[in-house]
Amino acid sequence: MVEGSMTQGAGQGPAVRTATLRDFRVPPYAQVPVQSGQPGHPEQSGQREHGHEAAHISMSGHPGNAIPDDELPDGYTPTERDLPVIGPEGVTVQLHLAPDELPEPGGPGPLYVVGDVHGYLDQLLAALGEQGLIDAAGNWSAGNARLWFLGDFTDRGPDGIGVIDLVMRLSAEAAAAGGYCKALMGNHELLLLGAKRFGDTPVNSGAGTATFQAAWLLNGGQKSDMERLQDVHLQWMSRLDAVVEEDGHLLMHSDTTAYLDYGSSIDDVNDTVHQILTRNDADECWDVFRKLTKRFAFRDEGGPEAVQELLSTYGGQRVVHGHSPIPYLLGEVGTEDASDGEGGGPVVEGPHVYADGLAIAMDGGVTMAGKLLVVRLPLDN
To answer: Is this model's pTM higher than 0.70 or not?
Structure first.
């Protein structure tokens, strides 16, 4: 938990936000200025206490390409609500914020969700910019707004690692501004983790022998993503939560009831998935991937009942999910190949509300020449 206060004296320049870190440290890619000369904090020379070098960020000209050189600090949780204020444990840090960057008073800011990105970094930047969440340079500009990504950052598109880097960086920038940017575990995160960890190790797929490597390639795995994948990305993905509830919205990646197999509460589900990934057993990890790849549980006649089962177990009034592209849900496109969406595919203008209004689908089919959706909740219809 991070506690903090904010003060601004007359004629003293920008406000100073003072925060005491108890449990978490800011990731090394968080470029937040720290007051030079304080004990235990980096000096302008770039050195940390005890002589360790400060983390560096390499930028290659694109707003998404922030590649951290260090690994995540111990205890970093990408969905922790009070994530980041900076510095070693027990030390007070002053964050200097310009007046127009101060978090807005009066409680949490507006809530936004992002559908499946699948490596389409430029489309993501454009969609976030249209909603006023980032500025022209790709930096967080939404104050205390809250932003949830519903998973599936990589595969099929050209720059999955750039997408992950962008989300990681925005997480720190949003928290410093009084908001947050967080992410859920998608089936493609599980697939990429498995391909990296287990490669061609045979797993029991339930329908014969399979491998994560073969499944990753079959599902649009990009060689460039694998080549750029670092430990920091693997740690970040493995700590993502599977399901959360926010303002009456039950957020999850997949339109399936398989989450019920992992616990009777949100905490149980997330803890169980994290434990399985920590045990690093190929068959167990494959089973999670297989279950969270299921889809269409809310689409047909029994859809409203399926949604209600999830809501009655985990809370919330509506499920918001990605995973199944809206044209795919509507039955107007047969596969997720981009060629199927060219020419004759349906035009997606926004989320698809269905299952008697209890479910909201957020995957606009960016891999099928569709639209990458960034939407403010709640929706009226």
So the answer is: yes
